[in-house]
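user: Kindly work through both lines:
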Amino acid sequence: MKKMRGANHAFTIIELMMTIVLFVILTVVSIFLFRTILLSWSSQETRAGIDIDIDFAVENMVRDLREAQIVGFANADEIRFTQGLNDDTNNYIYYLYDSSDSYPPDFDQDTYQLRKAGLTGVSGRDLSTGTFTYGEGDIITTDVISPNDADDPSDLSFRVPEAFYYVLHAGNLYTGDDITFQGSSGTITGDLSASDKVSQESGMTINGTIYEMGDSNTTLPIVGLSYYGSIADYSYTTNQTFSADPAAGIHYIDGNVTITSNVTIDNATIIATEGITLRNATGLTVSPAYPYPALVAGSSINASGAEGTINGLVYAAGNVDLDQANIILNGTMVAGGTITMTDGTFTCTYDSDIQSVSPPYFYYSTITLDLCVESDDEKIESSTKVRPRL
């Protein structure tokens, strides 16, 4: 019986020791799991905070750019824009900053700050002339991955409507419109784009590439006529004829416009909700205030016996028909229908400035905002494309 009691006593001690060891193991495991859960919650909270910060930054940029009057750039991965009109105009830039880099950045650092600063010294509406101090301005968000990163690059970019990359563009995608030079001569310097074909160009010297159906997938931009009506310096509710020099500014005509001979349109833009006719308009000169367009027609533009020089953008939602005209164009001509030049002399030279600053109030200008942020070896992205009310 004593041996039995000794055995029971020894078994109880072993059982107690095993219980203590198991309790210690369970305690350690519980603490480890609890710590892991806390760290996971903390990581999720940190990530959520970063998500909120970067989404908030993109949301603010979208709000700014949708309300911008003019959007442009001077270097890669920056966005310049104008808010307000007339005396209340303010110019800004969104850019990427690192103290080890200089302006314009080489983007050879790993991460950058996204900053918003004011621009000074802007000449007219040319945002590329504005200056700022690299490193100044409000910090919008930090740890933005370099645009040169091989795996997850950030991107701030502005692309004007594709039609503005050509000296002449006719038609919309799938509409099948032509550019025709019928019995005409002259020189075209720049690329041409037609949704169908370019024809009868044998009398023309073309210093550029011709893009026709199958090569040209260009979308026609749409002009916001009502916006021009809201900012016009001069508004007309009936058809107008300009036989004398109009005053500088934006002239908005709810109807048709006729322009006659010896008219100089200087620092002025003609916007017609219907057609524009150049009737024997010899001695014509059109020079709009940059970057506003020269002539905009809600339907077609027609010219017969016209002679003169037009600088800037000529836009017609319908056809452009130039008959027995002698026209020098320094800029871009865009038509929603056909462009026909008959029995005339035409010298058209593309102005590349339209690539850096799109004329205001033309839709299908696209801004890309793609911010990738790196935190604790984790990469978080917020991306969107913006079409401002240009």
Summary: The chain has two domains: 1-160+371-385, 162-356.
